[in-house]
Design goal:
Layout lengths: L5 E5 L2 H16 L4 E7 L3 H7 L5 E5 L5 H22 L3 E4 L3 H10 L3 E4 L8 H7 L2 E5 L4 H6 L7 E4 L4 H4 L9 H4 L8 E5 L13 H12 L3 E4 L4 H12 L11 H7 L2 E4 L3 H9 L3 E3 L7 H8 L4 E2 L3 H5 L17 H14 L2
Parallel strand pairs: 1-2, 1-4, 2-3, 4-5, 5-6, 6-7, 8-9, 8-10, 10-11, 11-12
Length: 342
């Protein structure tokens, strides 16, 4: 194994939770890590919360394609400079294509993980990567179309959230300790990623859901993705639902909640793994991972106003949530180090 560090890039909030156990596993094996983080959503705050020392490089480019391209170019330059100083043996991310471009241009082996086949930037990330890590439900035809040649793809069984939650043990008093009233059903809500490339549309059901929740005797934790989105939600009359407290640990939050309703994917899949009822109000193209969970009855779709009206919220049965073993985590770290040693 090279004595040079493994370089991990965190471009969005869920990446922090995904890579936290990876960083711990690498360090347990005596492997040094260096981390970069994009100043977007709760990424930097979560790094601080979990004690991850990260060099903050770049921010979000806004909702326009031109802004995203400009930000991407600037971030690639800054990441190149970082990597030239640190000389990592491998670059690893969850589809952080700026890191992929920077690593590729410097001859650093690149590993990228992804679990959603309709992200347009997959074409960039996959072509830069030496190894592409995807769940076995990821469609093969999409992999080929996005530049992922079979010899550089590792397909695993399960969900990436089995890595995120490896060894996780929830704290039973977490919600109350954060000031969340858990005497009533606790409903965690994640809005649409309205600034993402894969979410270029409005979600007309979401406002109806929030109005419904305002009438219910429930505790709502509405997790805006950005300060601008929080301001928009307040302007639309949902300020009473928006969480304005400390940056929360999503794992403990999801484990303690009685329902999760998300217009994204990661938090819903964490709920599925932890046994919390999960509802998707995502209005884009549903990925194969989530389609498989719907088919298994583990994820429920909200597709119409009637579905919103038909929702019922109650306290879930309390018991120890399923404990996730570290088998997928350790294998993921194995394959990353194998790429580093090529």
């Amino acid at each position: 194994m090279s004595e040079r560090p493994v370089w991990i890039d965190l471009a969005n909030s869920p990446h922090v939770l995904f890579f936290r156990p990876v960083i711990d596993e690498l360090r347990a094996r005596g492997v040094e890590t260096v981390v970069t983080a994009r100043d977007f959503a709760q990424t930097v705050g979560l790094c601080r919360r979990f004690g991850i020392e990260a060099s903050v490089i770049g921010a979000h480019g806004g909702s326009s394609v031109a802004g995203k391209v400009q930000e991407l170019a600037g971030r690639v330059r800054a990441l190149r400079a970082f990597a030239a100083r640190e000389r990592p043996c491998v670059a690893v991310s969850h589809n952080a294509y700026a890191q992929g471009l920077a690593g590729r241009s410097l001859g650093i082996p690149v590993v990228t993980a992804m679990d959603y086949e309709f992200q347009p930037a997959n074409h960039v990330a996959f072509r830069c990567a030496d190894l592409i890590v995807v769940p076995d439900t990821y469609p093969l035809d999409r992999l080929r179309a996005q530049g992922a040649r079979p010899r550089k793809v590792w397909r695993y069984q399960g969900l990436k959230e089995h890595i995120t939650l490896a060894g996780f043990a929830p704290h039973p008093g977490y919600l109350a300790g954060c000031g969340i009233d858990d005497s009533r059903p606790v409903v965690v809500v994640r809005p649409p990623a309205d600034m993402a490339l894969y979410h270029r549309f409005e979600n007309p059901l979401f406002a109806g859901l929030l109005r419904r929740l305002q009438r219910e005797d429930v505790s709502v934790v509405l997790l805006a993705r950005t300060p601008a989105q929080a301001t928009d939600l307040e302007r639309e009359g949902f300020g009473d639902l928006v969480w304005r407290g400390e940056v929360l640990d999503g794992r403990h939050l999801v484990a303690g909640a009685d329902a999760v309703v998300s217009a994204g994917g990661s938090m819903n899949r964490e709920a599925v793994v932890l046994g919390t009822p999960a509802y998707s109000i995502y209005a884009g193209k549903m990925g194969a991972v989530d389609r498989s969970l719907v088919a298994e009855g583990r994820l429920h779709l909200i597709e119409s106003p009637a579905d919103v009206d038909g929702l019922t919220f109650a306290k879930k049965e309390r018991g120890a949530p399923p404990r996730v073993d570290d088998a997928l985590l350790t294998r993921f770290v194995d394959v990353v180090l194998e790429v580093a040693d090529r």
